[in-house]
């Protein structure tokens, strides 16, 4: 039996999503076939607005509705302390912990040579420029950089690369305290799946890096 082209096209598009295999893609497609037309149109409209209704913060690269984002523009946040995370979902997880009151920088990925992702493919240059520009300005200086990349091989490689770049800014000696999240986050875990209490202790127990 040959499926209708509309079904095949939607199934193929679902398969392009991370974690979605052919069978799951088919189930999602046939589920949507039974959804009332008004709900289906609402779903399609939401997809259409996903790009047009969001933007990247010019400061930290977080996803928001305004620029600068709600965190960067919040005067109560400690702008001298930057937490570097891989994805916006990591930022959301850390915010849920309620422990961190500084600002962020979202890389949108990690260095991964096997996937052809190098430093230029993620927002490392924007981070370095943000730090070097701040240190030359008269504004409140950045005094701590918390490397909260995931405790994976890719996350560690990214953290080491950033540390090296920061030290080079300081002519061989880092003028900024560089820390890594402390105990509590298991090796190989993604921050977005770690519970709030574990994240709270990881932030409190961060160490020199």
Short description:
The protein is an alpha/beta fold and 209 residues long. Helices cover 42% and strands 13% of the residues.
CATH class of the largest domain: Alpha Beta
Q: Helical content, roughly?
A: 40-55%
How large, in whole angstroms, is the Cα Rg? 20 Å
Please identify the structural class as seen in this structure: alpha/beta
The strands making up the biggest β-sheet line up spatially as: 4-3-5-6-7
Count the E strands: 7
Overall tally of structural domains:
2
- The CATH topology label of the largest domain is Dna Topoisomerase Vi A Subunit, Chain: A, domain 2
Number of helices: 7
What CATH architecture label of the largest domain applies?
A: 3-Layer(aba) Sandwich
Biggest sheet descriptor: 5 strands, mixed
Element-by-element helix/strand order: HHHEEEHEHEHEHE
Q: End-to-end distance, in Å?
A: 59 Å
- The 3D shape can be described as elongated
Strand content: 5-15%
Mean pLDDT reading: 87
Poorly predicted segments: none
Domain Toprim: 80-186
Pfam families: RecR_C (PF21175), RecR_HhH (PF21176), RecR_ZnF (PF02132), Toprim_4 (PF13662)
Keywords: DNA damage, DNA recombination, DNA repair, Metal-binding, Zinc, Zinc-finger
Zinc finger (C4-type): 57-72
């Amino acid at each position: 039996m040959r499926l209708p082209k509309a079904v095949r096209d939607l199934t193929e598009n679902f398969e392009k999503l991370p974690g979605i295999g052919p069978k799951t893609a088919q189930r999602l497609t046939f589920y949507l076939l039974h959804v009332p037309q008004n709900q289906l149109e609402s779903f399609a409209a939401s997809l259409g607005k996903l790009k047009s209704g969001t933007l990247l913060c010019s400061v930290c690269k977080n996803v928001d509705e305004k620029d600068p984002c709600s965190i960067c523009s919040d005067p109560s946040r400690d702008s001298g302390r930057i937490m570097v995370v891989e994805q916006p979902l990591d930022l959301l997880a850390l915010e849920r912990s309620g422990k961190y009151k500084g600002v962020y920088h979202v890389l949108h990925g990690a260095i991964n040579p096997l996937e052809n992702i190098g430093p230029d493919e993620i927002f490392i240059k924007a981070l370095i420029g943000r730090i070097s520009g701040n240190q030359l300005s008269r504004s409140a200086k950045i005094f701590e950089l918390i490397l909260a990349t995931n405790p994976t091989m890719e996350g560690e490689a990214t953290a080491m690369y950033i540390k090296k770049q920061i030290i080079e800014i300081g002519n061989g000696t880092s003028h900024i305290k560089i820390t890594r999240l402390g105990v509590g986050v298991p090796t190989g875990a993604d921050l977005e799946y770690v519970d709030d209490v574990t994240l709270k202790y990881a932030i409190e127990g961060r160490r020199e890096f």
